[in-house]
Amino acid sequence: MCMASEAPINCSIEVESKPSAVVDVCKEILAKLQEHKFDKDDIFAVHLTFEEAFLNAVKHGNKNDPTKKVKIDYSVTPEKVEITITDEGQGFEPEAVDDPRFGKGLYEPGGRGLLLMNSYMDVVKYNEEGNSVYMVRYKEKPTLSEEQSQTQV
Amino acid sequence: MAAIKPGISVEYSDNATIMRFTDEKILEEQDIKALQESIMSVIEQAERINLILDFANVRFLSSAVLGLLIRVSKRIYENGGQLGLCNINPKIYEIFKITRLTKTFDIYNSVESATEGLSEQN
Question: Number of folded domains in chain B?
């Protein structure tokens, strides 16, 4: 477990590849978000996406093999939370996953986890191998006018 | 009202069967499987069910629950029944909107409006 601190938090944890292992790590990350005064929407978003990404790693990445591990790296600063989840699987191609919002996908039971991750996080990137996902959520989103004024400076 | 298993209760009214999720969070795969079994067993007991799933207590769910709802709806429609969802809190409703499941499911504000809505469709 990572120590509480007012400073930006950088943690690296390796846990057993089983669905129930998500609980403690998730609690730990959400507690850090509260310490850094992230609001309820941020906490809901990170909670949801962390659960989805972790379960993807256990189920699709590590194929429910309890001898494998899931590695979680995260950092929380007053501005943003960054999370990387890595499994020991073969990886996958996110572009090859059908959009569950259209056609047959709408009536399929699965396939919505990635969509939710992409919707609730500001950045979602996979490594080349496809077995590690990096996600970021900013506490305050830069508005268009801020971006424009920064460009003008 | 009877609690079938932890996680859901069932109530029978004249026009509909109301199943109410009792947990705030629905996440664990085992819990989701148990919920599905409970719901399916109630569906199988009726010839053509008008089922209302009440989300009033639910504050958090994973995409696996959406899968459960799809499976449940398929079974109900196969048997000529109807499904209504109700009392979905705004954050959970956002998940339904993002996934466009608002197009797939009949969603109502309350058990009463769901009962009325399903009766009108009969």
Answer: 1
Cβ neighbours around B6 below 10 Å, total: 12
Alpha-carbon torsion (A143, A39, B22, B108), positive or negative: negative
Within-domain flag for A3: no
- Which of A44, A112, A119 lies closest to B66 in CB terms? A112
- Residue B99: pLDDT over 60: yes
In which domain, by residue range, is A42 found?
A: 9-152
Distance of CA B65 to the CA centre of its chain: 10
Q: Give the CATH number for residue A110.
A: 3.30.565.10
pLDDT in tens, B41-68: 999 999 899 999 999 999 999 999 999 9
CATH classification at residue B42: 3.30.750.24
pLDDT above 70 (res B91) = yes
- Please report which confidence band the pLDDT of residue A61 belongs to, taking 50, 70 and 90 as the band edges: very high
B70 CB neighbours in chain A (<8 A) are 107-109
Cβ distance A52 to B63 less than 8 Å, yes or no, reads: yes
